[in-house]
Design a protein that fits this description.
- The structure is a single chain.
- The chain has 419 residues and is α+β, with helices and mostly antiparallel strands.
- 60% of the residues lie in helices and 10% in strands.
- A five-stranded mixed beta sheet has the order 2-4-5-7-6, covered by helices on one side. It has a two-stranded antiparallel sheet with strand order 1-3.
- α7 crosses α8.
- The two termini are 57 Å apart.
């Protein structure tokens, strides 16, 4: 932009020749010197150091009103058509050298000095000189203020751009890390599943061959412990596999006609078999609740909620209710245990999040996230009401009939629940 000023300076030499009493040759020499200074600075600036750049633009700011003042003096002084344009010199410099308030300040100082010199040479009265000086000072202050504000805006814009770029880089790194983690979980769960299945089969075979009194009681208890831990590891592997399937967008629902009351009762029976007499689960159902659902997926959801209710229920009874509400069916799982604080409620449905201490309660923090993803693919949702020390009530809401459909081909990101 600075280079464009040089031809403009020379073009206006034509107007100098039209002004009566102008020494054309001398004014043209001043214009050539002015344009040459501008071109030299413009060509030198890109190769200069930051400190030298500031000095060069300051030189441009100071020299601009000086050259212009000489032109005013040579074309008639205060009677020159150029005289009143002197006040605009700082604003012109502010527009041309936008990122250099120091140049605008130099132009403001030079404009005041050059204007005073021209008026003194023209014999202006002191009162007129003071009035012009006040006006020139106001115009100079306005130009400097505008230049400083523009510089701040440019710096803020540059800062916001850098923050935006950094944010994009962090988001890209996050996505890469999430993809790497999900790939690792998928591979690890598959690789661990094979030896775990073999271990579980061997332990089950050994357990079937054990008869009362054939092995010491201590060995029988150890074998039962191995089976329980194998079942626990199997459950963890299944959850990791479910995570990789849902995250990769490959979950496919398989709807069948089923009785939800029977599905819930089968899940409760299975849980009682695993925990023995340590659990007290009460089931309330109006009778057969027929519909079309993915029975396996829905049982997994109920099992996750019942498992949490037993784990965090503080040994108190757990109540399961199946309620029909028009074309929707509700499954409520209520416990009277430790409950969930208000600040923890917004994150319990996120991946790997836990409201309770991992030291006191085991698990990966995936059950509720998996359950909500499954239910939402069925067109429903899971809500929760809870208070610390008063237990929790999780409510699964699903439509009575579900058509087969596939999860969209996209990664499922951690989400903030609606409650």
């Amino acid at each position: 932009m600075l280079l464009w000023c040089a031809p403009l300076i020379l073009i206006f030499a034509v107007a100098d020749g039209l002004t009566p009493g102008t020494r054309v040759a001398l004014t043209f020499a001043v214009r050539v010197a002015w344009a040459g200074t501008v071109v030299a600075v413009a060509l030198w600036l890109p190769r200069a150091t930051p400190l030298l750049q500031e000095r060069l633009v300051l030189a441009v700011g100071l020299s601009t009103p000086v050259f212009f003042g000489l032109l005013v003096h040579l074309t008639g002084g205060t009677h020159s058509p150029l005289f009143h344009f002197m006040l605009a010199m700082p604003l012109v410099v502010a527009v041309v050298l936008q990122d250099h308030p120091i140049a605008t300040l130099g132009a403001a100082v030079g404009m005041v000095l050059a204007g005073v010199a021209v008026q003194v040479a023209s014999g202006r009265e002191a009162r007129t000189l003071v009035e012009w000086l006040v006006l020139a000072t106001c115009m100079a202050a306005l130009a400097v203020y505008a230049s400083v504000i523009y510089r701040r805006l440019r710096n803020r814009e540059a800062l916001l751009y850098r923050q935006h770029v950094a944010s994009l880089e962090r988001e890209r790194d996050y996505q890469v890390a999430v993809e790497a983690r999900d790939h690792f979980l998928s591979v690890a769960s598959h690789e661990l599943r094979t030896p775990l299945t073999a271990l579980k089969l061997q332990a089950q075979h050994a357990r079937r061959t054990v008869t009362p009194g054939s092995v010491p009681e201590k060995a029988e208890r150890a074998l039962n412990a191995v089976l329980r831990q194998a079942e626990r590891l199997q459950s963890l592997m299944d959850r990791l596999l479910d995570l990789s399937v849902i995250t990769a967008g490959r979950m496919v629902l398989d709807p069948v006609d089923a009785d939800l009351s029977v599905l819930v009762q089968e899940t409760v029976t299975r849980l009682r078999e695993e925990h023995g007499d340590d659990v007290d689960i009460q089931v309330h159902s109006p009778g057969p609740v027929l519909g079309r659902w993915d029975a396996v997926a829905l049982q997994q959801v109920v099992q996750n909620l019942l498992g949490n209710a037993v784990k965090y229920g503080d040994g108190k009874p757990v109540v399961v209710r199946v309620v029909e509400v028009g074309e929707q069916v509700h499954v409520e799982v209520e416990d009277h245990g430790i409950g969930i604080s208000a600040q923890d409620l917004p994150r319990i449905f996120q991946r790997f999040e836990r409201a309770a201490s991992a030291r006191n309660y085991g698990g990966l923090g995936l059950g509720l996230w998996l359950s909500r993803q499954i239910v939402r693919q069925m067109g429903g949702d899971i809500t929760v009401e809870s208070a610390v020390g008063s237990g929790s009530t999780f409510t699964v809401v699903v439509p009575r009939r579900l058509g087969a459909r596939e999860v969209p081909e996209r990664s499922v990101k951690p989400e903030v629940p609606l409650h």
